[in-house]
Amino acid sequence: MNPLCAYLGYLFVNYCLNDKVQNEPIKPVKNQTFQLEYQWHYVNFTWPTYEDYKKAVIKRKYIPENVAITGIKYHKGDLYLALPQIRKGVPVTLGKISTESGPKTNPLVHPYPSWDHQPRSKDCTTLQSVQNMEIDKNGIMWVLDGFRINNNTRCPPKLVLFDLNNDGKEILSYIFPKDICSSQGGHLKDIVIDSTNEEFAYITDNSFLDPGLIVYSKGQNRAWKLRDRTMFDEEDASGFIVGNLTYKGLAPLDGIALSPILPKTRNRLLFYSPLAGMNLYAIKTKVLKSERLINSGDWRRAIKVVGKKQSQSDGLIMDNKGNLYYTLPPLYGVGKWNMHEEFSTAKIMAEDKNMLWTGSFAFDDFGNLRLLTNNINKYMDANFPLKLSQEVMFKIFKYFTGTKSYLE
Q: What's the pLDDT score for residue 250?
């Protein structure tokens, strides 16, 4: 038995049961194109010492059942994980696991870049609540420290860049102005990187009060925001059910995906969709890069309706061949469409009840697409009672596409 379990006694009997399952082999999902690779009943970390671990549990700085994984990205054998402070007791908000070694069930997460970068309530220079990230082709990780829809931190939302080739050295930290993203209600949800000519990041703000698409120019070190009705909930798409739980909250702009460079125009297309929305939209990136055009309001005429998806979507991702993969949480599945064809050709490529809330994607260097499922509707519902049990809360699946990221 884990010595901490013996120390804490019956108060953590459910915590102790994880000792019995952490080394069980993963059983592949039958009739499933995505093969199960990792699973967690709860997330734990590589603590500096046993005493630090014990102290964090006793003082409720670490509440295992409250830690959720919301984003994944791959780089040189490691999977990086985003763990926002949705609820209390989340000591690490950015971490990683190795895909080359270690257990496949309940692998311990290494804080990244270090423990010193993890949340400290009175130090806004540290990471506070990371929802997602992207890793560009130069090994720079662009981190969205912008989950601000609760009072677990009052620090302003920011974009932080780490050099993965230099031990995670911080090379930039950009604090978003209040009129772009609020520290009380802002929700930086997803990010894609555009390195065509200059470096830009396109970021979704899933805020209930001020949803929109944020454009960040690294060269100018400034940001601007697009707001449009296409970024709000669609009336007939709210209140959907996943795992017998109705998603009741507002669900505006959420997933985004960036196309490969279009040969004729040297331009790209940005695709986006509200979480509570069936429609998929697209806009040319040359429009997004013009702050003058955005300020004029004329940019709205450039928005195109691509088509209606089979259900609501959370995460989107595109490969270097123009294939868009999009999650379908109410259908427990994943959709696929090639941008060079009519949207009517889009299909459901995976559908399985074991995939509870299909959420986030990541490509690796070997033609594999990874999918995170995370039961996130349970964590986002403040009235849902979370408790440690033998239920698997987070899964990472792997599917061979033979393609690479849109970044290539």
A: 74
Which stretches within 42-145 are classed as H helix? 50-58
Q: What is the pTM of this model?
A: 0.93
For residue 302, report the phi and psi dihedrals to the nearest 5 degrees: -90, -10
Please state, in angstroms and rounded to a whole number, the distance separating the CA atoms of residues 68 and 64.
9
| pLDDT at 5 (0 to 100) | 52
Distance between CA atoms of residues 254 and 206, nearest Å: 6
Whether the Cβ atoms of residue 204 and residue 210 lie closer than 8 Å to each other:
no
- Distance between CA 137 and CA 269 in Å, rounded? 19
Q: Which residues of the chain have pLDDT under 50?
A: 1, 3-4, 6-23, 29-31
Q: What CA–CA distances, in Å, run from 50 to 59, 98, 244, 322? A: 14, 22, 38, 48
Q: Which of 224, 177, 182 is closest to 206 using CA atoms?
A: 182
DSSP code for 195: -
- Please report the pLDDT score of residue 380 as a whole number: 94
Sheet of 358-363, strands arranged across: 35-40, 394-400, 368-373, 358-363
